[in-house]
């Protein structure tokens, strides 16, 4: 378990103090994939680097399985940090060393006996699907392959936590997906807790269990990815979600609306049931779809539909009440009646 307790990071520049992280507290469970989302400058990197003490927090504590890293120094801190692996947007492989030697470097740093190193390198490369690249130099690899080497190196010393700093931001969408699937596999098979920072909601939707949103160094919203997609509380969170699930109805369409425009949210199995057709059949209302999608988040369906309901106000109210009794959530977005 990872406890981030009231962590603040203040940078002292020549002219002024800059608050990178502002009193952040988070609890990340063992085996969880946790996403930290925010725009540039929100404090994501600062917070991530505080977790493994690449940045020493100005105040607050970082507890990994009960050990407070901020209280450790020297050799004890070095040992504790070996249990936290990290991967980076720009990979940071050593260009003069081969793939195998890059991984060896991490094993030697942890003082693994030399007779065990080669077998471990092979095992790690097999895990990331790159066995045949052992003698190749980083310059001869694609971006996705470089990140796989980065992942193998980060896993070298059997960490319990893997920190991912915008790990897929330099990759194309298809390669991003393959790296995210690899991270999920590592999380499941090795029971490694993953904390990732990203400005891409797609990344969070793909692999995270829980997430938080940061702004101005603070956590402004936190919860399960499913709940946050279903019911974001903050404007900024909504903005991030809109980048994945967008429901902008053009003004020209809204101008022609004669009834009420409602957003209907179906959670879980409810998404698969014919609630809307049942409603139209049972009540004296006409329904026009303006927008709709069913998203799958952690293999759970989340249906979001925007509909125009036309009819007498009383009938529309009855229809809405009926939809809600069937377990869906209805929000009136526009009323032209
Ligand atoms: N070494 C530093 N010295 C001074 N200020 C810093 C330093 N590192 C970060 N900051 C400042 O702290 C704030 C948070 O930056 P941080 O890099 O953590 O944000 P971020 O969300 O990761 O953004 P990005 O994705 O662009 O890296 C910013 O105002 C930044 O300018």
UniProtKB/TrEMBL annotation:
GO cellular component, one term: plasma membrane
Protein name as annotated: D-methionine transport system ATP-binding protein
Any GO MF annotation of the entry: ATP hydrolysis activity
Stretches assigned to coiled coil: none
Keywords: Amino-acid transport, ATP-binding, Cell membrane, Membrane, Nucleotide-binding, Translocase, Transport
Gene3D superfamilies the UniProt entry points to: 3.30.70.260, P-loop containing nucleotide triphosphate hydrolases (3.40.50.300)
Occurrences of domain ABC transporter (ranges): 2-241
Membrane-crossing residue ranges in chain numbering: none
Family: Belongs to the ABC transporter superfamily.
GO BP term (any one): amino acid transport
Species this chain originates from: Psychrobacillus insolitus
């Amino acid at each position: 378990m990872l406890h981030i307790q009231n962590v603040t990071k203040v940078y002292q520049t020549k002219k002024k103090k800059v608050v990178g992280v502002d009193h952040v507290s988070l609890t990340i469970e063992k085996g969880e994939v946790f996403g930290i989302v925010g725009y540039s400058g929100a404090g994501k990197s600062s917070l991530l680097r505080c977790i493994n003490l690449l940045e020493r927090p100005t105040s607050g504590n970082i507890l990994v399985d009960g050990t407070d890293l901020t209280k450790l120094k020297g050799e004890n801190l070095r040992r504790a940090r070996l249990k936290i692996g990290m991967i980076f947007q720009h990979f940071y492989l050593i260009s003069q060393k081969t793939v195998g030697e890059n991984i060896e470097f991490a094993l030697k740093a942890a003082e693994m006996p030399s007779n065990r190193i080669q077998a471990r390198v092979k095992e790690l490369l097999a895990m990331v699907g790159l066995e045949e690249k052992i003698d190749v130099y980083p310059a001869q690899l694609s971006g996705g392959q470089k990140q796989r080497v980065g992942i193998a190196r980060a896993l070298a010393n059997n960490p319990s936590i893997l920190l991912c700093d915008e790990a897929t931001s330099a990759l194309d969408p298809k390669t991003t997906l393959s790296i995210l699937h690899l991270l999920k596999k590592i999380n499941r098979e090795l029971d490694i807790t993953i904390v990732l920072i990203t400005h891409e909601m797609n990344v969070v939707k793909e692999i995270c269990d829980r997430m938080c949103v940061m702004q101005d160094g603070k956590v402004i919203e936190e919860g399960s990815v499913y709940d946050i997609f279903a019911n974001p509380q903050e404007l900024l969170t909504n903005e991030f979600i809109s980048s994945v699930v967008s429901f902008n109805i053009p003004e020209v369409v809204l101008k022609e609306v004669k009834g009420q425009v409602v957003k209907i949210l179906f959670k879980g199995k409810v998404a698969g049931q014919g609630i809307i057709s049942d409603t139209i059949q049972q009540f004296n209302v006409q329904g026009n779809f303006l927008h709709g999608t069913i998203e799958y988040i952690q293999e759970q369906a989340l249906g979001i539909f925007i509909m125009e309901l036309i009819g007498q106000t009383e009938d529309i109210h009855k229809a809405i009440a009926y939809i809600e009794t069937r377990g869906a959530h209805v929000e009136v977005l526009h009323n032209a009646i």
